[in-house]
Amino acid sequence: MTASTEIMTAAPHALAPHADEGARRGTDTTLVGVLLFITSEVMFFAGLFAAYFAAKVSHAGPWPPPGYHIEIEIAIALLAILLTSSLTMEMALRSIRKGNRAGMVRWTGATLALGSIFLVGQLYDYWLLDFGITGLDAGGEALDAVYGSVFYTLTGFHGAHVFGGVFAIGIMLLRGLGGQFSPRHHAAIEGVSWYWHFVDIVWIALVTTLYVLPLLGV
Amino acid sequence: MATTTLAPGAALPRSGFAYWLAGWLTTTDHKRIGILYLVNSFLFFLLGGVLAVGVRTELAVPGLQFLGEAGYNQIFTMHATAMLFLFIIPILAGLGNYIVPLQIGAADMAFPRINALSFWLLPVGGALMFGGYFFGGTASAGWTNYVPITAKAFSPQAGQDLWIVGLLLIGTSSILGGINFLATIFKLRAPGMTLMRLPIFVWTMLVTSVLVVFATPVLASALIMLFIDRNYGGHFFDPAAGGQAILWQNVFWFYSHPAVYIMILPAMGVISEVLPVFSRKPLFGYRAFVLATVAIGALGFSVWAHHMFTTGAVYLPFFSFMTFLIAVPTGVKMFNWLATLFRGKLSFPTPMLFALGFLSMFLIGGINGAFSASVPVDFAIQDTYWIVAHIHYVLFGGSVFGLFAGVYYWFPKIFGVRLHEGWGKTHFVLQFIGTNLAFFPMHTLGLMGMPRRIADYSPDAGWNELNLLSTIGAYTLATAIVPFLWNVFISLRSAREAGDDPWEGNTLEWATTSPPPPYNFEALPPIRSERPLFDLRHRPTVNAAESAGEARS
Fold first, then answer.
1. A20 and B106: CB-CB below 8 Å?
2. DSSP of B475-538, one letter per residue?
3. What residues contact B533, with CB distance under 8 A and at least 6 apart?
4. Of B258, B259, B128, B105, nearest to B190 (Cα)?
5. Positions of E strands within A100-192
6. pLDDT of residue B402
C-alpha cells in the first residue's frame, strides 16, 4: 500500500459499491440505455427513409409508379390499432405505478393482442398487394421496380420491429404474471413502453410518407 | 441434500483449466472483457498485418509474382476490413472498456452482460468475414464495398454476403458498446466527478460513442439494402430499375466518415492522458480541448461527401468548406498538446515516445488530408496513392501510435508489471522508421499518378524505386511487432512489479491496485478537478481544507 492509499483510507470518501450514486439520481440507467437504443433505431430508419426519398426524387412520372396499388384503408386501420396499443401500453405503465399488478397484466395482455393483430393485418396487406420486392408481378416499367424494394424494406423492417416489441411485451406479461414489478421497480416496463411508442411513431411516419404524401401530390 | 440445494456450485471445480476457461468465457467484468477485446483485436491486427505484407510484396517490383489479380483484390479488401473493423475500432473500444469505468470511479460498465455480448459478436463477425475464403473467396471489392462492383453480377461469391453479415454483427457490437459507454459515463460517475472534471480520455470515448450511436445504424441500413439487392432481387442500387448507385456512397460515407473520428478520437484521448503525465503539467486548455472534441464530433457528420467530390453528384463548395472547417478544432488540439509540452518537465519513457510519434505522424496525416479537401486538388489525386498515404498517416501514424502509447501506459495497470523499456524503445524506433519508409513514398507515387488498388504496374512508369522503398518499410513495420511481442512475453514472466501508480498518474485508475480488484475501488479520493490524484499528491492541504469544509456543511 502506498502513501496515497493511506491518505484515502484516512478519509474514505465513498466505497465502490456506493460509487454509483449518480445512478440513483435522475433517469434510471436502464431507461438511459433504452433511449440511446431508440436513438440508434431512429438513425437506422433514417437510412431506409433516405433510400426511399432518393428513389422517389430521381423517378419521373407519378408516384407510386403506375400499376403499384397500395391499400391506404388497411394502413390507416393498422395505424388505429397501433395508436390504441400505445394507449393500452401507457395504461399498463400507470397501473404498475399505482401498484395495480393485475391491471398492468391486463393492459399488457391487451397491448400484446393489438400488436399481434397489427402483424396479422400487415401480412394480410402484403397478401393483397400485387407487387413484390422485385417489382410488379405482371412486369411493368423496368424503372419502376425500385418501388417494390423500398416499400417492402421500409414496411417490413417496421413489421420486424413490431414483432420485436410484441416479443418484449410478451416477456413483460410473463414477468408480470410471475409476480414481478412494483411501483418502485418497473424500469423494464417503462423501457418497453418507450420502445413501443417509438415503433408507433415510425408507423405514423411511414403512413405519412408512403400513403398520404403521394395522395397530396408531394 | 439440503446443502447441495443451498450451494449448487459446490460440486464444480474451483481451479484448473476448465474453471479458468469458463471464467473467461462467461465473464461480465469490464476489465476481463477489456482484455478479451484487446487480445482479439490484436490477433486481427496481426492477420491484417500479414495481408499488408502480402500486398506490399506483390507491389515490390512490377509484374504479378505470387498473387493473381483476384487474390490481390481479396487481400487488400480483407487487409482494410481487418484493420478498420476488427482492429482499430474494437481495440480502442477495448481500451475504453478497461479504462473508462476506472477513470470515472465506477465499479463496472452500466450493462455488464450487454458488454459481454458486444465483445462476443466481434470474433463471430470476424470469422464470418474471413470464412468467405473457404466458400469461393472473400469479399474483394475494397473495404468501401462500392456498387455496382458488389452487385451479384460482379461479385457472385458467398464471401461478399458473409462480409455484409459479419459487418452487421460488428456494427451491432459497436452500437451496443456505444450505448453502454454513454450510459456508464452519464450515470455511473463517482461523486464529485462533474462532466467538466472527466478525464480527457473519457471525454473522447463519450464523443466517439455518440458518433457510433448516430452513424453506425446508418451503415447497418446500407448493408441491409445491399444484402436485399444481392439476395432477394431488390433494386436499391440498380439504376436499370430506378435505383441509384450513388445512394450507396452517400449512405456508406455518412457512416464511414464519422467512423474516421471513431478511430482517431480515442487515440487523441490516450495521448492527452500520456502527454500531461510525462510533462508534469496539466493538459493545456482542458475546456478548449473538450469543445474541440465535441466540435469534431458534430462537424464529422457534415463532411461525408468529400469522399465523393469526383462523382459530380454532391454540392462541392459546402462539403469542401466544412472539411476545411473541421481542421480548426483539430488544430486547436494540436496546440493544446504542444502547449502542454512547452516548458514541461519532460521524461521519455516508451508511452511518451509513442505519444510524440502520434503528434508528428498525425500532423503529416492532417496536412496531406487538407490537400484532398480542396476540390481541384482532389480531382487530381482521387483514388491515387496520395489517398493511401493520407489514410495510413492518420490511421497508422495516428491511431496505432496512440494505441501503443495507451498500451505501454496502461500495461502496468492491466497486468501489474511494467513492460521492458529497452524493448519498448526498440519497438518505437522500428515502427517510426517503418511508418515513414512505407507510407511517405506513397505521396510521391500518388502525385506521379499511381492508382490505388492495382496489383501490377508498368516497369516504365517510374514507380519502381519508390514502391520497393515502401515495401522495405512494410517489412520494417512487420519486424517492429516482434520486439513488442517479445516484450509482452518476458514482462509477463518477469517480477518487475509496477505498483499502484508507476507513472505518478493524474486519474483515478492509478488510485487502485494493479491489476484492480473486482469492482475496482475500496475507496476513492476526493474529486476536485480532472486530476484527482495530482491533487491528492501535491495539494493535500487544499484537499484537507475542502474535506473539512465538506464535513462541516
1. yes
2. HHHHHHHHHHHHHHHHHHHS--B--S-TT--SSGGGGS-SSPPTTS-S------SS-HHHHHHH
3. A4, B501, B504, B505, B506, B507, B508, B510, B511, B525
4. B105
5. 131-132, 135-136
6. 98
Query: Contact, A13 vs B511, CB < 8 A?
Result: no
Contacts of A37 in chain B (CB under 8 A): 175, 179
From chain A, pick out residues whose CB is under 8 angstroms from the CB of B238.
145-146
Domain boundaries, chain B: 29-538
Q: Of B58, B8, B28, B202, which Cα lies nearest the Cα of B119? A: B28
User: Do residues B101 and B188 lie in contact, with contact meaning Cβ atoms separated by under 8 Å?
Assistant: yes
Paired strand residues for B159: B138
- Angle (CA) B385-B390-B395 rounded to 5° is 125
Average pLDDT over residues B331-347: 96
Residue B11 has a pLDDT of 61
Give, in degrees to the nearest 5, the angle at Cα B415 between B410 and B416: 90
Q: Report whether B234 contacts A149 (CB < 8 A).
A: yes
Angle between helical axes of A101-128 and A72-97 (0-180°, round to 10): 170
Please indicate whether, in this complex, the C-beta atoms of B225 and A153 are within 8 angstroms of each other.
yes
Which residue's entry shows cell 496531406?
B368
Grid cell listed for B392: 495510413
Q: Do B523 and A149 touch (CB under 8 A)?
A: no
Sorting pLDDT into bands at 50, 70 and 90, what band is A142?
A: confident
CA distance B306 to B138: 28
B241: Cβ contacts below 8 Å, ≥ 6 apart: A135, A142, A143, A144, A145, A146, B235
Q: Residue A73: is it exposed, middle or buried by C-beta count within 10 angstroms (0-12/13-18/19+)? A: exposed
Task: Quickly list DSSP for B163-199.
Answer: HHHHHHHHHHHHHHHHHHHHHHHHH-PPTT--GGGS-
The CATH label, of 3.40.50.300, 1.20.210.10, 3.20.20.300, 2.60.120.10, for the domain at B29-538 is: 1.20.210.10
Mean pLDDT of B488-499: 91
Instruction: Give the residue from chain A lying closest to B244, CA to CA.
Output: A55
- Which of B107, B242, B540 faces A19 most closely, judged by CB atoms? B107
DSSP B74-134: HHHHHHHHIIIIIIIHHHHHHHHHHHHHHHTT-SS-SSHHHHHHHHHHHHHHHHHHHHGGG
Tell me if B218 and A22 make a contact (CB, 8 A cut-off).
no
How far is it, in rounded angstroms, from Cα B399 to Cα B408? 14
The mean pLDDT value for A89-111 works out to 97
* pLDDT class of A26 with cuts at 50, 70, 90: confident
Q: What string of H, E and C letters represents the secondary structure of B210-232?
A: HHHHHHHHHHHHHHHHHHHHHHC
Which residue would you say has higher pLDDT here, B6 or B17?
B17
Which triple of cell numbers denotes residue B466? 519508390
pTM passes above 0.90:
yes
From the CA of A25, how many Å to the nearest CA of chain B? Answer: 8
**How far apart (Å, rounded) are the C-alpha atoms in residues B266 and B403?**
8
Are the C-beta atoms of residues B524 and B508 closer than 8 Å to each other? Answer: yes
User: CA triplet B160, B164, B170: central angle to 5 degrees?
Assistant: 135
pLDDT at res. B198? 96
B383-441, pLDDT tens digit by residue? 999 999 999 999 999 999 999 999 999 999 999 999 999 999 999 999 999 999 999 99
Handedness of CA B148, B152, B158, B161 (dihedral sign): positive
How far A73 CA lies from chain B's nearest CA (Å)? Answer: 26
